[in-house]
Amino acid sequence: MALNQRQTELVDLVHEKGFITIDELVQHFSVTPQTIRRDLNLLAESGVIIRHHGGAESSSTTENTSYQSRKILNLEAKESIANDIVKMIPNGSSLFINIGTTTETIARALLNHQGLNIVTNNIHVATILSAKKDFTVIIAAGEVRHRDGGIIGETTCEFMNQFQMDFGIIGISGICSDGSLVDFDLREVRVAQAIINNSTNVLLAADHSKFGRNAMIKQGNISQIDHLFTDQQPPHDIKEMLSSHSIVTHVA
Question: Which structural domain range is residue 12 located in?
Fold first, then answer.
């Protein structure tokens, strides 16, 4: 596909920033929102970028969108998912919570609970939940990833393997059409695998933008989860896999 100068620069901006809003692009190029939407739709159809409501993100399979961009990306969907998922957590439960802006949103939604015992490798989750005096919050050992406050590494995996929790609440970067759960950091993936292996019930929180999104490292397979919490019906192939493995799907 031949791109004009604006479209070429637009692609460069998306890859540079990871995620960019329509408003930012309108201001940058001094064109109408309709023009930007047409450009984004054209580029998304060609697989150059990934189109989202309100903006676009890089289609890179080797590097995730920036943490600050992910905090605002599909925030309303994440809040709806969080409100659904916390209804399943009884007071007094034990739970893992892993890295991600979706799991941070879930942590905020858990503040109305009582007597939770939480193990997390997410500094932001630990900060949010430590505000409750009746919560026990244990933060994992390991290397702190500066860009998003995630704690990762072999030490973190060994730490997680010391626990057996009622629930493992995990986020993911992408869900492939074959059911693979994929992410961008091998060390983060290994910690997530430890959470899955040591949880009685695995709850995956993933908004609709994660369906069909690619990343280079396999975290596992959708068959390993017990419940999927999302904001839109999954694509047909994924829905069939969920049904065949008796995985309960909750659509906010």
Answer: 5-59
